[in-house]
Amino acid sequence: MNSTPLRIALLGAGSIVRAHTEGMLRHPDLFRITAVCDTNVLAAERLAAELGGGPVVHTDYVTMLDRQAGELDAVLITLPHWLHFPVASAALERGLSVLLEKPAVCSVSEFRELQRLEEKHGGIVQVGQNQRFGTEENLIKTWLASPAFGDPRLFNVDIYQNIEGYSANQPEGWILDGKKAGGGIVISVAIHILDLLRYWFDDDFTEVHALGRFDEPLINGAESTVAATLRMGRGMLGTLNCSYAVKRCPYSQRSLIFGTHGTLYQHVEKPGGGYAGVYHTSTDGGKPSPQWGMMYEGFEPVIVPDGTEENPLPPWKRPFEAQWLHFREAVLARKARENSLVRNFNTIAVIDALGRSLRSGRSETVEQS
Description:
The chain is an alpha/beta fold and 369 residues long. Helix content is 33%, strand content 23%.
C-alpha cells in the first residue's frame, strides 16, 4: 500500500466531485479512481470519460460495493445529504474507508452509529471540511493563537445565498427539503464557518439560542433564515446570521472576530467581487490606551498567491488536494486524523442544537462527544 495507489470509488457524479478529482489526478502514483457510481447514468459516464474512461460505471451503490469491494481501498461520497449515512455505513461494513463530504450526516444519532461502525469494521471516516486544509485558513489559525490576537472574545459571522437562483439550475430540488438535506441554510452553508471556528480556536460550541424563518420554497422544516447567538467552551460568544432568502445579494460571507488585542475582518469588497473577500488582521500590540485614529490603522490583508508552477490549482481548490493527501496517510496508518469523526462531532452537534432551538424558541445545550 505504501508504494501503490489508493484505489478510490466515487459515489456521486455532481459538480463538487470535480474539485476532489482535480487534486487526485495531480498524483496518479498515489490515487487510482476505479469506479464511478450515480443513479444518473449519463452523469456517471460523463465523469468516467473525463477521468480517461478507466473507472467502471455503476448506477447502484450496493451493487458496486458488492462487485468491487475487493478492488477498493476507500470511497468518496458526494451524494445528497440524506444518503450520506446509509452509503457510508454500507462502505464501512465492507471494510472500506470513507471520505465523506460535508455534512457528515444529518443528525447526532446517525453520527454516533457511524462511529460505532467505524470502530467495529476497521475502516476510517474523515469528513470533507476542506477549509481546515487551506493555506489561508492555517495562516489565520496561527495568527489567532498568537499574542497579537490575544484571548478570543467575540465573533460575528454572516452568510447569504439566494436559494431560488441556485436551485433553479439544479436537476432536483432536494436541497430545499428539510428531510433530505437535514435542515436548511445552517447544515448546507453555515456549516463551513461553524466548523472553521472550531478549528481555528480548538474549541467546541456549548450553548445556542436561535430564531428563524421558514419561507418558501423551502419545505419540511428547512429553515430559510436564522439569527443565533452561540457560546464556546472557553467563553467566546458570537452571533450567526444566515439566510437563503436574500434576493439581491451575492452568495457571500462576512466575518468579524475580536480578541483582547487583535481583530480578524473579512467582507466582500463589492457585489460580484467573490464569495468571501480577503481576510484582514490588525492588532494593537497590547497597548493599554489606543488613540481614536488607531481604529482605522494597521489592517493587513492575508494574501495567498494564485497558481504557481509547482501547484497551478487556484487557492480554493488546493485544500481539496491537501485533504486527499492527508486522507491517504490516514488510511495507510488505519487511523483517522484531522477531520476524523471525533473531531467533527461538535460541528454536527451544534447544528442539531440550533435546529432544536429553532423549534423550541429557547436556549439549547450542545451535546458533547
